Amino acid sequence: MLRTLGIALLCLAALAPSRVEADAPVLIVQPGDALISIAKRAGVTVEQIKNWNRLDGDMIRIGQRLVVGPDAAEVPVEEGIDWTPPFDYGAAVQQSKTQSKPRIAARDPSSAVATRSPDKEVDARKPKRGRTYRVQKGDTVTGIALRHDTTIAELLAANPGLRADRIFPGQTIDVGAPRPEVRFKLERGDSLLAVAKRYDVSPRDLSRWNASLSNQDPRPGTNIRLYTRVPVSPSEAIGPTNRGRLENGVRLPPHRGYLVRTMARAYGTEETTRWIVGAFNAVDAKFKHSKVVRIHDISDRDGGRLRDHKSHQNGRDADISYYQNECGPNGCRFDEFRSSELDVARQWTLLEYWLRHGQAEMIFIDYRLQAKLYRYAKRKGVTKAQLDRWIQYPRGKYEPQGVIRHFPNHEDHLHVRFVCPYSDLKCRP
User: What is the percentage of the chain residues whose pLDDT exceeds 70?
Assistant: First the structure.
């Protein structure tokens, strides 16, 4: 009787519709694997893996299938919870206790524009519908989300009634428009938890997009890739520099390398303020004794017309005094000086930071000072191709070439104009 019942159940199972594998993460143990290394890769704890797999000890065998996340079927859809577990941040959480508040990851400190694939030029503020995908045998919701640069939560929101643990071959799913891709480097004090919170993604999705991360606390400088509709920064430069405005402006923070004349006129985009600080950090790191320059104006809090300026309206312009051999207690002066008095080593270090990182759209510097900077950079090994791209000299002060260019009335200060940030869709060069 029992044998007959078993055969009947097998027959019923064979006749049932083929069901795509549930979205519970499963890992096959490979040679050299241990529970601790598997837990780190999966972003969970050893104890969680033991509980999910009913393991009494730490012994595992090659080829063994291990569940490394809770079964998606156990999580109710209506709760809006991501179908996979969060990281066990452990030491990272303890470390943050020494700070007044969790550090939010810097937005792409290494380059001017956060990377976005050219075939994915979409409005980051308005998720769109319309792209569909037909489920194939062996597909999971996780795999579909990864393939289409989106998240499980977004797929579920775009497909009412869709269950992450029950999809079938031939089923059509609305995958929406791809999320813009953002790349940046972690800075000291950043954590993956802060990254996930800042960009409104789940820690588990962050782990999937960065499968090469081997631990839960990546070092500063680690490259991170993610897909998000959240703007790279909260501030926004709108319009051109001479007919624009600034939204959510960020005030330039204090730094031992500069003095700000008027804090009410020291607002810029988040990128502008971060790139200014980054360049002065580079000068500090290279020279033992600090010199102070003066920063006169960036923009008003909300941008718009700024007295004594035709530009400086959208948070991307800054007037900075030159480094000079002799500077007073109030910083290097905003006065005309002889070219022989230029502290060319410090000045080039500041400029090179913006040039190498592609952060400057244009830098206005008097032509006579360009000559000294050109010769110094050449002695330091900068290639001719780079010099041709970066500096107008020696082609003449009226040749419209080079990031560094001559412009009248810049004998006593330089004027740097930073590029439009990637997420500022209304910014105009």
Answer: 77
